[in-house]
Amino acid sequence: MNGGQKMKKIITLLLALTLAAFTLVGCGSKGTSSTADVSTTADVSATETPEKSDELVKVRVSTLAQQLSLPMYYIHEKGWDVENGFELEITTFAQGTGINEALGSGLVDIFTIGAAGISSCSVYDAEYLFSHEDSGAGQQGMVRADSDIANATGYLKDDPNLLGSPETIKGKTFLLPMGTGAQINVDTYLAKFGLTEDDVTLVNMDTAAGYQAFVSGEGDICHTCYPTADEFAPSEYVAAFSMNELEIPYYDNILASRAFYEDESKHDVLVALCEQIIRAAEDFKDDKVLMDTMMAWYDLNGQTCDADAIEHQVLERPFFTYDDLTTIDYTASFKMVAEFYASVGNITDEDLDTVNANIDNTILNEALKAYKADYLK
Question: What is the pTM of this model?
Fold first, then answer.
């Protein structure tokens, strides 16, 4: 491998552990920013919380000030935790790396997390329970509308919405955060045209920096995600490919610390919490409920949001319902990301074995059975 090829393979571990966590378009901070490096404990007391008892099991939940953590807030706000014999103590973090640090310090029981969950399992021996949200929307590769890639339409007869051809793509420069889902997206796109990373140049930039560089004239393809995806003017830029078009599963996840997972006295609480997460997903099928709860969650975490500006972002990333979890392979994304990290050297083969060994469907299966009995009568 020559020096240029090696540079293409450089992976920044920090980026590999977390997808960029940005404030949504239409949102601004107020008071303490939700993107601070330190965690903040959210006071999400329900408006009409059932009377608490000393027998409630405390569950320390770590969240992000993002959509993937919305079920935890909603469950506590509705009082469903107390109703089922436990109480969620919610702490928010800026990034998944912060959650993992707290996990390593023994401060976390249950948490919502994205790609950083691979490190949770491989480094901190956490247990993957299930994936609960499809977060692939907005993950796409943007090109200039007047580029040769944009004008190369219909090369793939089976995928006419993918723009480009081997001749127009080869030698081009991609701006993307390496070691994240963006690299998986780019590699899958290249493979569709019989190309690999060796046929192009990959420049490691986080999403915001990549956008600024691209609109300033650098690079040929810029990988983006929400909220930055909304900043590209439709008249000037088009999507050459996307995760949804490439049918790449990309989900957010629910994990448990090893100590909490193996504590037999917490087993029923763990099942009950997962059941309530499924229950919340059913409520979130109502767009108004989802949007209202999302706005409240961002406000709680110090962000002022324009609902119109974020509506399609929120509604395009659905939570998995009972029907979804009983019909799809909800583990597909987590396994894919782990295998990708192993292939690029972010984790070892031994780490990959640990991740796979820490994927468990026992708790979710019990929760699905309970949900069917309690709510599908």
Answer: 0.85
> Omega of the bond prior to 234 within 30 degrees of 0, cis?
no
Q: What are the residue ranges spanned by the domains of the chain? A: 3-12+137-246, 31-135+250-375
Quote the tokens at residue 64.
Answer: 């992000």
CATH, range 31-135+250-375: 3.40.190.10
Average pLDDT over residues 330-337: 97
- CATH number listed for the domain at residues 3-12+137-246: 3.40.190.10
User: For residues 334 and 357, what is the distance between their CA atoms, to the nearest angstrom?
Assistant: 12
359 is written with which tokens? 């994927």
State the Cα–Cα distance between residues 76 and 360, nearest whole angstrom: 25
Give 46-84 pLDDT, tens digit per residue.
Answer: 444 444 446 899 999 999 999 999 999 999 999 999 999
DSSP structure class, residue 161: T
Q: Are 330 and 320 in contact (CB under 8 A)?
A: yes
Query: Distance between CA atoms of 16 and 281, rounded to whole angstroms?
Result: 28
